[in-house]
Amino acid sequence: MTKKLLRSAGLVLVGLVYLVPLYVLVSMTLKPSALGVSIWSPPKSLYLVNFANAWGKAHLLTALFNNAVITLASLILIVLVGSLASYPLARYPTALNRFVAGLLVSCLVVPPLAVLVPLYKTVVDLRGLNSYWAIIMILVSFQLPLCVYLYTNFIRSIPSELDEAARLDGCGHARLFVRVIFPLLKPITSSIVILCGILIWNDYQFSVFFLQKREVQTISVALSQFVSQYQNDINLVAAGCLIGIFPLTIMYLCLQRYFIKGLADGAVKG
Amino acid sequence: MSSTVSASSKPRRGAGSANLMYVPALLFVAAFVFYPFFRGIFISFTNWNGYSARYRMVGFEQYRTMFGDPNVINTILNTFVYGLGSTLFQTVFGLALALFLDGGTKPRSVVRTIVYLPVIISPLIMGYIWYFFFRYSGGAVNDVMNLLGAESVDWLADGHRAVWIIMLINSYQFVGVSMVMFLAGLQSISPTYNEAALIDGASAPRRFFSVTVPLLTPAFASSVVFNVIGGMKLFDVIVATTNGGPGYASMSLSTMMYDLYFSKQNAGYAAALGILMFAIIVALSVGLLAFFRRREVEA
Lengths: 270, 299
What we know:
The structure holds 2 protein chains of 2 kinds.
Chain A lengths: L1 H28 L19 H9 L2 H32 L3 H12 L9 H10 L6 H25 L4 H8 L4 H12 L1 H16 L5 H4 L8 H11 L4 H21 L1 H12 L3
Helix pairs in contact in A: 1-12, 2-12, 3-6, 3-9, 3-11, 4-6, 6-9, 7-8, 9-13, 11-12
Chain B lengths: L2 H5 L15 H21 L17 H8 L1 H32 L4 H11 L6 H12 L5 H8 L11 H29 L3 H9 L4 H12 L1 H16 L3 H6 L11 H11 L3 H32 L1
């Protein structure tokens, strides 16, 4: 009995450790001012002015739109280019293709910021600063290695008799890929979309350099500027942060199972 | 086509045009990973300031300066605290949480969901949330300290303490990833091993260390490699909490590169630091993978 009680207490404790920061964030947001009241005290009324102000002052509508465009375009490219590349790499492991696969996967260890200086210079040369396409290309390039790795492993697990039957029926590579292979990739594609989607949606390390103008800024970049600008109105800043984590949190709570599976699939890359 | 009938058991024949399919992927990576990487090596041998058309080749000068620069040495040490410290925390607590929360009961699965939630939150925003806790005036931690009659502490003003706080924030956020890896590992262990050990009279700790832990080697490998690489690259949380300060005290290699390039106009030096960071991460991941591969054979 005591064992069961201890277990329940443990569960509550772990849950609290993870919910307390959210409580503090929400309670800050719902208070008019940080002065004179404890950050811990529950809000007295449903004060929503901070939300409205943060939404306007941090230009979150524009940011949300930019996030959606960049994430969606990147994901489409990643899935298309990644799955396409993985088919020959998985099915025809010639010396050349093994080398190509190794080359692609070796990018996994290149820390994105380690190439920041030359990458920035390259984007400036291509006149890609403050453009959707440059950040999309960069995000796609840095996500592709993991994506190719996951797709190649998955394609290897599909019995090759399927391809052979289709080939015998006179199916070319292109049709074989579109009609037979790609539809079978659904489970891993959903994992890749979730894994890369989260990383791209939350990206800050690239976006902060390549999206400097307000019209193209994503949530992370917009928020970081908002925070440094309104540091003295901490409750307003908290409201911005709460809005910032809202979209993905709702998606996570609705699609929990897929999220955990997707992230677990990506995590076993070691 | 008739010859393909006999060759069909070996589908590696006839790749031909199929190889065109990886050309787009190669172009992406070549343009935005490999080309910048090699250009970075070149820039690291110059004294380029980041914008002017004029620069001079300086050979290994930047690298020589780097190893005599106390700020760089401190930053490398910080980066190791971020990388290895988070890895230790996340692996130990990830395993503990997995053991504690494994199983199908409703309360456990709810807590699992809660522990996993921060993984999807932007690390930058997570950094801000914890900044609200560790701020000097009006911070949530000092609020509690004052309530207990203690003086307020300026938590992030001390560089050493800031480094540990940042490391803990990163661990807190991503412990769920390790937990999921260990949960998957635990579910793949057949109960017969533990039953056999039980019949042989092995105690619970003995069963844990001699049966469960060795069988979890792949999960340990994923957890360690994933967290080392993630922690060594740490950037967002630092920007949100201390921005590398005070001075250079809590910088990681990532934030220092940003500072050198955009604030100090020292692109050559920043590029050299990037190459150093690349070398450290490659050496660490190769070493760790070799270590775990050897263990896996023994298990």
